[in-house]
Amino acid sequence: MVVPLTPTPEPLMLGIEHFDINTFMGQTLGWLKWPTLIGLVFAAVAFVIAAYFIVQYTKGFYAGRKIPKSWKFILWGIFITAIAETGEILAFYEWPIPGFIEVNLLLVVPHALGGLLVGLGAYFLYKEVTS
Amino acid sequence: MPILEFHAINPLTYPFGPMFGMNLYVLLIHIPIVFGFGVAAYYIIKYLRKFYADRPIPEEWRLFWWAMVWGTIHELIEAPILYQWIIGQVLLIVFFIIQVVASIYLIRGSYLLAKKYIVK
């Protein structure tokens, strides 16, 4: 059964009071409660760790030289995607009454921006060896 | 939660019902979400083939490229979850596996890149 968004009388800025780790997109999780939570948290943490290692890599590889925009874009893309993955946890567990901030500012917009930056960064990386 | 269900949901009428503009906004913003990592995987392999030419591609770069591929799969599966085209335990198990694999590749790939050039 599809669980659509539940309209509220006034736009809900934060939906944290609807956060429930027993449900995912409004569906009762049952035995999948912990695997789902672990998977979502692991993904968010992985992007933070990757951002940290990419900072270390660029510092070591470029050692005082100017870091090219390709790696700056990739690094920011990975970091912003970490924010999106965090927003995803909130929105999936708050559904069907998620807050505006969680859905827009923490999930949808950072996801799009993160994807765009990683894609552009990789494109610039390729252009650096071809031009 | 059901084992597996499929639903034909029109993205132009979901998730905000009659608010067409909001539905279109959510749909359009999925273009960079889904294709961003795919484009990254495409250009990184092109970069590696150009840069390393006939030399073997180092493990850290191979793993980083695989992280981009799995990241793309990760973003791809989130669209049917959000749009509820697919609902069920099977989908969540697949989602869990994809998240774990993508995360391991991402951590391992970036770790090995850093390890090779880490600032002492």
List descriptors.
heterodimer; A: 131 residues; mainly alpha; two-stranded antiparallel sheet; 3 helices; elongated; B: mainly alpha; 72% helix
Order of helices and strands of chain A: EEHHH
What structural class results from the helix and strand content of chain B? mainly alpha
Please provide the ordered H/E string of secondary-structure elements of chain B.
EHHEH
Oligomer: heterodimer
What does this structure look like?
The complex is a heterodimer of chains A (131) and B (120). With 131 residues, chain A is mostly helical. Chain A has a domain at 52-131. Chain A has three helices and two strands; from the N terminus they run ββααα. Chain A has helices spanning 33-62, 69-94, 100-130, and strands at residues 23-24, 27-28. A two-stranded antiparallel sheet of chain A has the order 1-2. Chain A is elongated and about 55 Å long. Chain A starts with 22 loop residues before the first strand and ends with a helix. With 120 residues, chain B is mainly α. Chain B has one domain (12-117). Chain B contains three helices and two strands. Chain B has helices at 20-52, 59-82, 89-117, and strands spanning 5-6, 86-87. In chain B, strands 1-2 form a two-stranded antiparallel ribbon. In chain B, α1 (20-52) runs antiparallel to α2.
